[in-house]
Amino acid sequence: xxxxxxxxxxxxxxxxxxxxxxxxxxxxxxxxxxxxxxxxxxxxxxxxxxxxxxxxxxxxxxxxxxxxxxxxxxxxxxxxxxxxxxxxxxxxxxxxxxxxxxxxxxxxxxxxxxxxxxxxxxxxxxxxxxxxxxxxxxxxxxxxxxxxxxxxxxxxxxxxxxxxxxxxxxxxxxxxxxxxxxxxxxxxxxxxxxxxxxxxxxxxxxxxxxxxxxxxxxxxxxxxxxxxxxxxxxxxxxxxxxxxxxxxxxxxxxxxxxxxxxxxxxxxxxxxxxxxx
Length: 277
Known about the structure:
Blueprint: H1 2-15, H2 18-45, H3 49-59, H4 64-67, H5 75-94, H6 97-102, H7 107-143, H8 153-181, H9 185-205, H10 210-216, H11 220-230, H12 243-246, H13 249-273
């Protein structure tokens, strides 16, 4: 019961934070803009019939399973890193962690309740995001008078599970950074820089430095992008041009799972072993 109580209290606490709703709202808005609105504008402005057909095909319900995951590895991941860092790091900034641990059954129980609350919120976000994506694809199909074909239920389930796993990986990355640095500012800065800058620089350098090309295959963003590409997402926006050829879907799934466990275990170990300042 102690874990259930910790989970319920963490979920209640996180849901009451305005920052959560701001981040999730921005995430959903960017998802719709970059995944459907901007590609639709590109379709409308396309002068090449083949290019226009390709863009429209991606936006129809039949392609929902892959298209809806487009932003999860990169910009979507950066916002979720911020979410994880805010939830875990704010306790240090507010000075509430000592009181929380003093009045709770154990450090790991509190930590697992916090992680479970975050994972629950991310699951809800993925469900809402796929619902919004599905609605957008239906509207686009209706306005273009295209044939509406429902996506496979199994493909949707796989994509939603993969999207949830990718977001959980980035969230625990933010939690691990916040626990390591005992705060939010540095952890958010380093997390966002890693997702948006460092991995892109390493991918650009991999073409001329063989060692970096090998390291590239183990990066979290590259494997998240490869997982999206394996599920039908556009390879160029899933983490770089040709990403699907660099890392296979099976390896990508395994690496994302390993990073998820590694980040979560690192944060839990740090919280359990170190003094709380």
